[in-house]
Design a protein that fits this description.
Elements lengths: L1 H4 L4 H6 L11 H14 L18 H4 L2 H26 L14 H24 L5 H33 L1 H25 L11
Helix pairs in contact: 3-5, 5-6, 7-8
Length: about 200
């Protein structure tokens, strides 16, 4: 998003999304951010700090009443913060259709609505996906998210910078050829890749 908007100012990033929200050209970055947000806020399926003991979960037994409510409030404040950052960077921030009546109210309502939509997605994922094992989480982060995120940063930089150097048509043609080659390789690779021999265990 920073590379696309070419600024670090959140206000200018929101202003740059007047014609098109960044969730459209930067959808992959949005998904990576949401997954990282799940892990950062310890939300399922990445709630591993609370999963070390399936029967007793720390503050669930140590605290009750308002103290327990404050712990849960802190957890959900983290979720709301991640949703607010995602709204600012990918969903156009506080911008949206607004009538001339009460012009100060509509930006606040639009921002709250977008934040609530992302929080709803977080709650929806919590009720849908099961918890994953720790080794699979580490493999998913190190082997998939980090390489794919770095690749997406490089691709975004190339799309922003290269048209000024070589022309837009040349860059679009090169990208189309590259994606076409990757698509063909993904179709052909299962046919030519060596398969592991299946050994029948001896009883």
């Amino acid at each position: 998003v920073v590379i696309t908007a070419q600024t670090l100012s959140l206000t200018e990033i929101v202003e740059a999304q007047v014609g098109l929200w960044y969730i459209v050209p930067q959808f992959v970055g949005f998904v990576i951010f949401l997954v990282a947000g799940f892990a950062e806020t310890n939300r399922p399926p990445f709630d591993l700090p609370e999963a070390e003991s399936e029967l007793v979960a720390g503050y669930h037994t140590e605290y009750s009443g308002i103290k327990f409510a404050m712990f849960y409030l802190g957890e959900y404040l983290n979720t709301v913060t991640v949703a607010a950052v995602a709204t600012t960077l990918w969903l156009g921030g506080w911008r949206g259709p607004a009538p001339d009546v009460l012009p100060w109210l509509w930006p606040l309502l639009w921002f709250l609505l977008k934040v609530l939509v992302i929080v709803y997605v977080y709650i929806w994922i919590r009720a849908t996906l099961p918890r994953i094992r720790y080794d699979r989480l580490m493999a998913f982060g190190w082997k998939l998210l980090i390489p794919f995120g770095l690749l997406w940063v490089m691709l975004t930089g190339a799309i922003v910078v290269l048209p000024d150097e070589f022309g837009r048509d040349t860059v679009l043609t090169a990208l189309a050829i590259g994606f076409g080659a990757l698509f063909v390789i993904s179709l052909v690779w299962p046919l030519i890749a060596p398969r592991a021999s299946e050994e029948v265990p001896v009883p």
